[in-house]
Amino acid sequence: MGKAKILIQLDSDAQPSVFDSVAAVDSGIEIAHVLRHGGVQVSQVRDLVYGAMFTRGVDELRNTAIFIGGSDVAVGEAILAQVERSFFGPLRVSVMLDSNGANTTAAAAVLCAARHRPLADAEALVLAATGPVGSRVVRLLALAGARVKVGSRSLARAEAVCQSVAARAPDARLAAVETASPAELSTALETPQILIAAGAPGVELVSAAARAKSRSLVVAIDLSAVPPAGLAGIEATDKRTLRDQVHCYGAIGVGGVKMKIHKAAIRQLFEASDQILDAEAIYRIGQGIGV
Description:
The chain is of the alpha/beta class. The chain has helices spanning 18-25, 42-53, 73-86, 102-114, 132-143, 155-168, 182-188, 208-212, 251-269, 279-289; strands spanning 5-11, 31-37, 64-69, 94-97, 123-127, 147-152, 173-178, 194-197, 219-222, 239-243, 246-249, 276-277. It is built from ten helices and twelve strands. α4 (102-114) crosses α10 (279-289) and α9 crosses α10 (279-289). The protein is elongated.
């Protein structure tokens, strides 16, 4: 009889996320224990990982996995890097990074867009592209072959995202665009088939009138669930909703896809002991389950 499945939740926030814990329990596999650690600092990670690795035989490590969460994505990335540095030889467990839901949300948004327009050679505009979700959306779109306009009120920050993505994907076709003024935004909206807004909650990025002027749009996705919408005129519950002949998604409409990906990724953690589930791997999981 195999060892019971254990998920170790490393959360950078003082209180570990209840959302992430419930999602793990509801993932469709029998997880015997979710061990929740809050306020995790990078300096503490090695000993936590050693506790996971040294208590079971190599053949049983597939039944232990690590989930990294918390509201600070940069800290989550640092925790993941330290987790990986702690592994050696065959002593390792699978690990998933989804701080602030950034990876699963980005994967869900791009997969929703792909329902309506093949991504290869499509033109996409990502607004608020310098945030944790937006930058991952840019990455996934670029890796899928899209031509991506990286939109931000700060051209320098947009250029920094382009450089970061290009380091991972040398063939990426990226263009930094400034969207601080209505004129700049109008120009950016002239030609894309895909529009994804990943802005802060309650901040309108595009008015309904401005969006209606973009005759090339096939799909528009707003990832903000807090009113006012990032893309005015799109409801949070929209899912494949036609508005002005554009397929529209709101945050809740994308959220159902996100949850399917999240739970499938948790299940996959326990299939082997050597998996690192970051944005790209999580996106492939979504492709594999056909969301």
